[in-house]
Design brief:
mainly alpha, 7 helices
Length: about 170
């Protein structure tokens, strides 16, 4: 195989021609559509919707041709850096990240096998503290404060029942 010089597409085409294979044969081997392989060889990156496809296809194609994949990808990054469309990695969405996205991102980083038992322990401790405070409050309050005066009121005529005499003899 001749030394790499020129663009990534020229190097891919030279590698394919040196191995005496057709685009169709390479397509069958790499499982990449032949029109995509042809676009890569022609340097027509506008066919692809995102740089991730270009990089993945070039990586697979270069590996199938037994080229130095690291060198080819470095050269590809340099070429893509010169284009306006593929200069920056595209955003996955058009909207800016909101609070929910930020919270979900941080929740996805949590090791739940550790966090869940700790949360359960904290919940049990919290319930125990509140139960103790309610119990202490109930002990210190007057149990008869809610009891109305109705049990000891006099009946018609103002007379009350006599107090029973003790039977201690």
């Amino acid at each position: 195989m001749p030394a790499t010089m020129g663009t990534v597409g020229e190097n891919l085409r030279a590698g394919r021609e040196h191995s005496k294979r057709t685009l169709r044969e390479m397509s069958e081997q790499t499982k990449i559509r032949s029109d995509h392989l042809e676009a890569l060889e022609n340097g027509n990156y506008e066919v692809f919707s995102a740089p991730v496809y270009i990089r993945g296809f070039v990586r697979s194609y270069a590996a199938a041709l037994r080229l130095n994949v690291a060198e080819v990808l470095a050269q590809l990054d340099e070429e893509l850096g010169q284009t306006q469309r593929f200069k920056e990695h595209p955003r996955l969405g058009n909207e800016s990240k909101g609070v929910v996205d930020l919270v979900m991102l941080h929740l996805s980083k949590i090791n739940w096998s550790v966090a869940l038992p700790l949360l359960l322990l904290a919940l049990i401790l919290l319930i125990a503290v509140f139960s103790y405070r309610i119990y202490k409050h109930a002990q210190s309050s007057d149990p008869l404060k809610e009891l109305g005066p109705g049990l000891y009121q006099s009946h018609s005529g103002g007379e009350t029942l006599p107090i029973p005499a003790s039977t201690n003899k």
